[in-house]
Amino acid sequence: RIIRLAEYKEPDYWIKNTQLVIRIFDGYTEVSSELTMVKNARVDGLPTLVLDGVEQTIKQLHFDDTEISQYQYSDDKLTVQPVAEEFIFKAVTRIDPENNTSLEGLYKSGSMYCTQCEAEGFRKITFYLDRPDVMATFTTRIEADKASFPTLLANGNPIDEGELENGRHFATWQDPFVKPAYLFAAVAGDLVRKDDSFTTCSGREISLRIFAEPRNAHKTDFALDSLKRSMKWDEKRYGREYDLDIFMIVASDFFNMGAMENKGLNIFNSAAVLANQETSSDDRFERIEAIVAHEYFHNWSGNRVTCRDWFQLSLKEGFTVYRDAHFTSDMHDATVKRIKDARFLKTVQFPEDSGPNAHPVKPQEYQEINNFYTVTIYEKGAEVVGMINTLIGEDLFRKGSDLYFERFDGCAATTDDFVACMQEVSGYDFTQFKRWYTQAGTPTVVVSQHYDAEQQQYQLSFSQSQKPTPGQSEKLPMVIPVKMALLNAQGDELAIDCDADFNQQTQVLTLTEAQTTVTFSGVSEQPYASLFRDFSAPVRVEFELSEAELLLLASKDKNAYNRFDAVQKIYLDTLIAMIKNGDNQTPSLVLDVVRASLADNALSPAIKSLMLALPSYQLLVDSLQQKVDADALVAARQAMKQSIANSFKAEWAELTLSLQSEQAYQFNAEQAGRRELQALTLSYWAETGDAAALDFAKALYQQANNQTDRLNGLKAVLDNGSDALVSDLLDDFYQRWHEDTQMVETWLLLQASAKGVTIDTIKALMQHEAFDITNPNKVRSVLAGFMNNFTSYHQKDFSGYDFIAQRIIQLDAINPQVAARFVTALENWKVFSGQRAEAMKQALQSIADSQGRSPDVSEKVEKALAH
Ligand code: ARG
Ligand code: ZN
Asked: Which positions fall inside the Peptidase M1 alanyl aminopeptidase C-terminal domain (predicted)?
């Protein structure tokens, strides 16, 4: 069944207030609801009431005090006929959280009960108008056995609690803010609580609480601190103050994604909230801080102002990712953050845009909304918000955001509403810009240059185009902000005098046409063009540059993002040429740029490590823009890595040793940068086969007092050590940390991503006592680890594909959402050449041919096969 944006209409009834009683018993849970409803005044007559409900066992249904005897419940819809325009709909139903392995609705996570309702999970808890434009105040009472479940939580403020018969107890929570059902949450468990408080800008004291299972109690401090930093930042940067008196976070071991912004009661994947230096790497700290911020920021961008329908998902997700990225830049290093975000977009979102699941930031239709929690909605959506900021400037953007929050507070809004606020405060006409919301695919901008020494004129010609995407063959020109500078041979920026729409203050040139030629006057020498600085638009850029030009940008561009980008372009272009020519000699240009980066003491260690890292296989696949011979690609990249390693063997060794530090561990940008660079230099050093490198790596692993160093040492051993050493260290790791869930997940992931891992090893991991196929984190560690392990997943005999297809079928019966995510690894079969593409397609076909597929998996597989 296809849901279409064009068919959106308001519901026939609204729900004003929702009263729930959730009675948890061993083996079943009973849910009583009382929904205060009123007919939508814009609707004629007295339409039938159609409520969503999945796997509900009906005990009683009432309109006010009258039992409903006439109803129809089929295909997840309950149809009843109201007799008045205002009424209370009451239902008593039973559900089965213990056997709910989809992890949507109410389910059991280890020893605790918790919920996940976004997008359409609330209908697994009770009958409801489960759509985001239906907003109600909620009161939730939870009843459960007191000894097993001393902690009972729901959204809002606690208003009552007490004892019941048979050792049971209850707690009642009230949320005064209207919200859609997807923001509902409830938790029952035996949890420890860590308290803190935050005083808001207006002087209100907010009680902050993190709940975790007792064995994780020592891992909550970092998230609490991150939360306080987020609260402060949102006040300062966006003028957003927290509203309830209490803010809670619960860590859950069974969780489909990172975390969920339920009003006042965020529920997190344990892996996205629990941290300490012993078990969490720098990357993990940064990710946790960003997710805590992301969910917190949703309190305004998502909860106070929510989405009218799921086509507007990017309204909250794109904006909130934009906000959390900005937060991370402010907390740490803005350039590093930008480089990583741009690299991620190119590596993961560009392929989505050129594959079967390409969709606009505001999709026109979907079958299963869970399949649309994508990098396009989230990360490209954030880029689109970022371009709005670039076009109107920081101050007006803030004014627009203030207006948006004020005007739509308590409402369900659309992306058009958001853009209209930006337009209103700035006077900028966003009509054409809005194609970024409706047009799928990545624009390509081809640039060419011409210098006329006599006229002292320099010309840049831009031509933009876009390939068709499924269901969208016609593409129109986009508004593309090009942040730029012209440089002289010393890398200094020239004053710009040109005949185009160039903003002197922001240094942004705006393209709106398919073809644009810009003439720059008074240019006394051939300049170097530094274009798309800071990745000012999510586009592919084709700009043929000479070696001299590339080298200048790679060594002298003052925009650190572009300098990084020029270095990467050298690697990428060279690798592509090697693949096409079948010649795996690394040219001197690459070694020159490595030498220059190594020698440049002005570069921070973090930037240096980013510059010295070769592009990933995934990025290479996308950059090739032709049928990919995966074997040739692996051979070329490995050859280049070898050659860089061997050419600078002494430097890698020396740098690795010099980056060793006695400083006490702290997670901060400076230390993390140092450790990241050391990991990189060590990996090149170990690649040379030098025994001293392996000794160093082993010692790093053994003597580390923090997870980052430990993993850096271990990874170097895994990639280059003898089988005996590898298995020694892996055994040691498991012995020491098998009781720590996050460490076990890491242990599984390390093995699945290790060089040369075989399907037999993956199978063995899935048989290991530490594995649990109902636990998404464990499944992701092993299977996503394998699928991202390019050389193993794409192994020469193609056996990786069928193996994954069979796992998808197996998982689909347990957890469709998680299973559907893995289809992504087969969906771009078309980019590969020959037999490989056929093998991937066959694997997809075997999923399609298997019985009883979920809508989640079916939608993705069908689209991939039709591509
Ligand atoms: N809103 C959550 C977040 O981004 C994610 C919810 C994902 N839901 C899903 N069905 N995949 O913060
Ligand atoms: Zn989000």
From this structure: 548-866
